[in-house]
Amino acid sequence: MCLKFGRITSIVISSSALAKQVLQTHDQFFSHRTIPDAVRAHDHDRFGMAWIPVSTPRWRKLRRLCSHHLFSARALDANQNLRQNKVRELLSDVEKSVEAGEAVDIGRAAFRTSLNLLSTTFFSVDFAGSSSSDIAREIKETVWRIMEEVGKPNVADYFPLLKWIDPQGIRRRTNVRTQKLVYLFDRVIDERLRVREVMKSGYTEDKDMLDTLINMTSDEDDREDHFDRTKIQHLLLDLFTAGTDTTSSTLEWSLAELLKAPEIMSKARAELEQVIGKGNQVNESDITRLPYLQAIIKETLRLHPPTPLLLPRKAGADVEILEYIIPKGAQVLINVWAIGRDPSIWDNPKKFRPERFIESNIDVGGGHFELTPFGGGRRICPGLPLAMRMLHLMLGSLLHSFDWKLGDGVGPDDLNMEDKFGLTLQMAQPLLVIHMSTM
To answer: How confident is the model over 228-256, as pLDDT tens digits?
Structure first.
């Protein structure tokens, strides 16, 4: 589909064959970005890894940092106990609500767990604290509002002269919300610098990822694009917004789909009981032995991709794709939401049916273009390995530990499955559920 609005030509790709051409065959021509005006808030377009050109030393350095230090198999294995502890805290919080007879807001609980995991990994501190803390709620609201503004149609994106006016106030509001997160990061960075200065030689410099980033700011071997405090702020913005929102929303959609299909939930719980054993906790090492759980996550990502149009790409040259010419400068959007519901690919595409992935080699790693919720090519989401570990661990633990039901007399057919669209896709109404402990 080709759309022309203002100065921008937009090509919407809704075919897996065309998606492969963009994300793999001609990736070098489509790795550029069109920059939404909202992203220019706090100069994030100049420093955010998701937006800067892939040809720059800055992008390569950030990507190398993610692949070698943050999301490599070795780094993730080293932090496995940390993730297990955070999931145990999630289960403990849920257990307390069982005792109090309270319903659980799954999206909020998952967000809090993801936030605490990231903040502990980076800063050795829980941002959200306990389940009763309002900090997680405030950060979740801030992150969603940023995603909403970035994904909102903005007339300034199509008529460049209007960027100076910001007629809808989108950049101004995004800037205010971004500054909230930056202020939070700055407080932690300032305190760490103070502690390092006080302790000097007595300080252990490999305490967490913040120490790694701070140490990189004094690295004199790479003067071409020196890593400084500003780049730390923007890297944290990328990781905390994407890493918390997408994981929590996908978990919420997963449980919602299971509550609408009790027979599928029963089958998942039976697999968990057989493999893990009643009374035992789910570990990351168990995931490979839980094919039905893996299929549930894939099926959720097919129907509810976290970023339904991915991030916008831009053609760096005139490119011919399957007899179509995509002109230089055109904005290219990959509609993974539509591809995931394409009846020419998927049998009964609107039905939640994890069995379609049993005995299938399709995965979300960017090599199967009928299922690319995290993108592909050199712009594929760098946090994909962590997201998949967390999704399986959290969903598996919640299913194995509790018997979930809908509250207030709501039946499976009555569950509101409407979504709200921003840059990411969330449930329009929070998923509130009740439960009984099974462990």
So the answer is: 889 999 999 999 998 888 899 999 999 99
Alpha-carbon span 176 to 38, nearest angstrom: 11
- What span, in angstroms and rounded, lies between the C-alpha atoms of 375 and 336? 9
CA distance 234 to 247: 20
CB-based burial, 71-94: b 16+ in 10 Å, e otherwise: beeebbeebeeebbebbebbbebb
What is the number of structural domains in the chain?
Answer: 1
* One-letter identity of residue 245: D
Q: pLDDT below 70 — which residues of the chain?
A: 129-133, 202, 204-205, 218-225, 436-439
> Which domain, by its residues, includes 19?
2-437
Q: Is 2 annotated as a binding residue?
A: no
Name residue, tokens 């299938």: 360
Read off the DSSP letter of residue 393. Answer: H
CA gap 329, 364 in Å, rounded: 28
Cα-based angle 14, 15, 17 (whole degrees, multiple of 5): 150
Q: Is the dihedral of CA 305, 48, 120, 222 positive or negative?
A: positive
In this structure, which amino acid lies at residue 407? G
Sign of CA dihedral 93, 99, 100, 101: positive
Read off the tokens for 225. Answer: 């694009």
- Dist. CA 404–CA 397, nearest whole Å: 12
- The CA distance from 321 to 315, in Å, is 12
pTM of the model: 0.92
Q: Rounded to 5 degrees, what are φ and ψ at 331?
A: -80, 135
Q: Give the type of residue at 70.
A: L
Return the CATH number at 119. 1.10.630.10
- Going by the DSSP 8-state scheme, the letter that residue 6 receives in this structure is T
For residue range 156-209, list pLDDT tens digits in order.
999 989 999 999 999 999 999 999 999 999 999 999 888 888 887 767 667 788
The Cα–Cα gap between 128 and 131 comes to 8
> Residue 11 forms beta bridges with which residues?
2, 332
Pair 391, 284: CB distance under 8 Å: no
